[in-house]
Structures are given as structure tokens and as C-alpha cells.
Design brief:
about 290 residues; alpha+beta; 2,3-Dihydroxybiphenyl 1,2-Dioxygenase, domain 1; eight-stranded mixed β-sheet; seven-stranded mixed β-sheet; 5 helices; about 35% strand
């Protein structure tokens, strides 16, 4: 299982395209409608999108500027996994040249990975990271994941000269990190329902993965327990997609969910799709389950 893609609801499609396409370097590969756009990496043959941007219905939206005042379950950040540290150095160099157009939130060395943190125009958290070599990962039952200073000056020195930044073809969505209202309930959902392994704990947060990775999904209760449920009518996360390796894995999970009395959802574009369904976690955060 891996994270296949993210769908974000945005206030302004043009503003978000400027951020994700012109600044972060994704390629626009399609516009299913005037109010939505699909983006992928360069060299991906325009087949699979990693990001789906969709303009929020103005009749339902909260007044812009007030959205950040609402404590609500949903996206903390999604994470763009680059192929290597040199790619992380290159994008840092590129972003540094455009820093007046960005909200740079910080950087960190997490021992298993090295990360840059940004906010997009709708205040969605965006992590851009590269993994350390797996031989450097420390694990005694759980992964050792910490937050340390990342030396950005040293990272910049490793950037290539005179390179035109584009999001490289082997880039993927590495993980999603979610705000939830009840850490125990959500942990049970992602481990017992989706079958993910609990790989790491952090104060107020748990991390889960499908295999030997450090995490594909993280959840935290840092906003408190009295947060509102996720609302897909507002700017922010509409849903994220989890891709299973085979039809057999897909059917096994589908049968397991039926046994656990978890009802799958469909939407207008998914009524006849036998290879995909949607589910809601305890906070109404929507996940698409699919296989390719």
C-alpha cells in the first residue's frame, strides 16, 4: 500500500496553480473542468496525477481568513517525497530564489528523513522531503523519529549549478499527516480497519505504515479533542488515495471492511467503478481505496 495522490479544495485555482506548478515545479497534465486541475511530475507520461486541485463552491465556503480560526480535523500536511538529497538541495535553491512568494515554515532532520515545510495559498501544510538511506534508519521495535536542526547552508552547498527546477519523475506522495479529535479511535481505525502497522509514537501523535516504511499516515491530536469534523465543502483536504498492490489485496480489504461493518462510499464519478471506493474515518476524513 502507498499514498497515490491528494485532492485539495482551494479558494482560487489560478493562485494554487501558480504555487504548485510555477513554484514547486509540478506539471499540469489536465483540466477535467474549468474549476479543477490535475498535476503530476515531469516525465510521468501524463498518466497518473499526484495532485488534484478543485475550486471550492463559493456558496459553501467560509469567509477567507476565518478558515484558519476553525479548529477542525483534517490535513496537517501532505508530504512530497523526492528521489534523493540532491533533489532536496536543488528545490531548496530554487525556492530560495522565490522566497518572496512563499511562506516557508521551517526545516528539520527527522533521522529517517530530511524535510522542508511550507504553507500553500490556502494554508495547507506541505512537506518536501528526501529519505535517508534505509541503512541509517534506527529501529528498536518502533522507528526512531525525532526533530533536529537541518543545516540549510550545507544543503544549499550541495545543490547543482544552473539547473532549471522541475519536479522529478520518480517523485511520489510519501505520506499524509492528519489532525484528529481522538488519537485512540483514529489509531484503531488506521490499524484495525485499514491494517496498517504502528511504526512510531510521538507526544500526541502516532505513525502508521503498510510495510517496512517509517510511515504512510500520521495522526495527531495537537488541536485538542473538541475539534470539528472534517468538511469536504471547505478549502483543504477533500481526500487522499491509498493504492493497493493487487486486486487480491483490494478484495481482501473490502471483505475485511464488510466484516467490520464499515460502509464504503461512492460518488457520482465512482458509481460503477469496481476498482475504487471511499471510506470515512471517525473524524469524517475521506480516503479513497484503489488498486492499479
Amino acid at each position: 500500500m502507498s499514498v497515490a495522490g491528494i485532492r485539495l479544495n482551494v479558494y482560487s485555482l489560478e493562485r494554487s496553480l501558480h504555487f504548485y506548478r510555477d513554484l514547486l515545479g509540478f506539471q499540469l497534465i489536465g483540466k477535467p473542468a474549468d474549476d479543477s486541475a490535475l498535476l503530476s511530475t515531469f516525465g510521468s507520461n501524463n498518466r497518473d496525477h499526484l495532485l488534484h486541485l478543485s475550486k471550492v463552491d463559493t456558496a459553501n465556503r467560509v469567509i477567507e481568513g476565518e478558515q484558519s480560526l476553525i479548529r477542525q480535523a483534517g490535513l496537517y500536511h501532505f508530504a512530497i517525497l523526492l528521489p534523493s538529497r540532491i533533489h532536496l538541495a536543488n528545490i531548496l535553491k530554487h525556492l530560495s530564489k522565490n522566497s518572496n512568494e512563499l511562506y516557508f515554515e521551517g526545516a528539520a532532520d527527522h533521522l529517517v528523513s530530511e524535510s522542508l515545510y511550507l504553507r500553500d495559498p490556502d494554508s495547507n501544510g506541505v512537506e518536501i522531503y528526501s529519505d535517508r538511506d534505509h541503512s541509517e534508519w534506527k529501529r528498536t521495535g518502533q522507528f526512531q523519529v525525532e526533530t533536529h536542526h537541518l543545516n540549510l547552508k550545507q544543503l544549499l552547498k550541495e545543490a547543482e549549478d544552473e539547473i532549471a527546477w522541475r519536479m522529478p519523475a520518480s517523485t511520489v506522495i510519501g505520506h499524509v499527516h492528519l489532525h484528529v479529535s481522538d488519537l485512540n479511535k483514529s489509531s484503531n481505525f488506521y490499524s484495525e480497519i485499514l491494517g496498517l502497522h504502528h511504526t512510531c509514537s510521538y507526544p500526541g501523535a502516532n505513525f502508521f505504515a503498510a510495510n517496512s516504511y517509517h510511515h504512510h499516515i500520521a495522526i495527531n491530536s495537537w488541536l485538542g479533542n473538541d475539534v470539528a469534523k472534517a468538511d469536504q465543502r471547505q478549502p483543504g483536504l477533500d481526500h487522499f488515495s491509498l493504492n493497493l498492490k493487487s486486486k487480491q489485496n483490494f478484495e481482501e480489504l473490502s471483505h475485511h471492511m464488510q466484516f467490520m461493518k464499515i460502509q464504503g462510499l461512492s460518488n457520482n464519478s465512482n458509481k460503477t467503478n469496481k476498482e475504487s471506493f471511499f471510506i470515512l474515518d471517525p473524524d469524517n476524513i475521506k480516503t479513497q481505496i484503489c488498486y492499479q
